[in-house]
Structures are given as structure tokens and as C-alpha cells.
Model the fold of this input.
Amino acid sequence: MKVSDALHSRTSVRAFSDKPVPGDVVREILLAASRAPSGGNLQPWHVWVIGGEELARFKALMAERVKTSPMGEQSEYNIYPPELKEPYRTRRVKNGEDLYRTIGIPREDKAARLNQLAKNFTFFGAPVGLFFAIDRQMEPGQWADLGMYMQSIMLLAVERGLSTCPQEAWALWHKTVSDFIGLPSHLMLFCGMALGYTDPQHPINSLRADRADLSEFTTFIGL
Done:
């Protein structure tokens, strides 16, 4: 598979089948992705992988927590800027509305939207969950390196017929996640990622998020 094909076909899947993913495949992907670039070769990524009975136990724990605190524990960092300006605000709102439209949830149905949010915390039914953390000493450059590592995982997953969904929503539950996986205090939870085989019949997986035209974000000088 060409890199361009993997990049074009990758989407954030929010409904997975229960088909298992072999542990060896997960290990191969994570190792291959470690060739992602990082400034000074710091390789600042830290990954936890959950599957099998431990994932079932974690999902049961999350189900109980979400019942009493559907919005989580508050993240340690701003997932989005507090005062998101244009055009970013419009893009975010439209993406959310497009997503809910695929599953027939109107804006005024707050309960249904909360229920959909809660599906984040089941990894959308994926058989493998990943958590990504970074040392608290690190700066924005190293956060970018972590993002490149995650992108490499997502493209390698496509190559193997798998799907993913990166989930910053897990930052809302950093205390619970940290306790469960034994995250050392010097590391900060960044996000999670669902990994598995897509459910092709689920309407939510029909979403293809918009992308801006090249002219909206690129300035050419001398070319």
C-alpha cells in the first residue's frame, strides 16, 4: 500500500467490530512506528496497551465512573483553546454536527449526545485500547514528536487492514486512567486511541471530515 493511499483512507472510526487483533500485530505496529522523527532523537512517547480481560475490567470500571460523572475529571491541559477563534470554531462545530447527523441525533437531544460521548470510554467497542503519555518536562516540540508517532501508528494500522480513533477525550479521565495503568507521576496522560477492525455497517463510520483547500493554509514564496 502506498503511503498516500493509507493517508487518504484513514478515518477516525467510532464503531468497531469485536474481531480480535493479534498481540503480535500490535507489537509490530508500535515498533515500526518508532521510526517516526523526533528532535534530538528524544523519542518522548510512552505507550500503554490494554486488551483481553484487562480491557473488559477497565471498561466496567469506566461504566461506573461515567454514570456519576459523565463529563469526567477535567483534563490537565486545554484540549481546545478556551476562546477558539475562527475559522477553527466553525470547523469544530460543523464536524460535531456532521458526526451526530450520521446517527440521527439532533442538537437538542442532550441525553443522546452524552450517551455518544460515553462511547469514547469503551474505545467505541475496539478490542485494543492504547494510552499515550509524555514526560512533564517536555515542551511543545516534543508534543509534536508524540503526535508524529501516533500518526505513524494510524497509517501502519491502515496498511494492515485495521482502523483507529485517536481520543483526546481520555484526558478528561486522567486520574482514573493513571491509577489503572500505573502511570508514573512524572508522566502526563495525553490521550487514548482505539485500535481494531471497523464495523462497515455502522452509519457513524460513513463520516469523512472536511479538509480546507490548499489556498486556505498555504503561502507560496518563490514557487
About this structure: Helices lie at 3-9, 23-33, 52-68, 88-102, 110-118, 140-159, 174-181, 214-217.
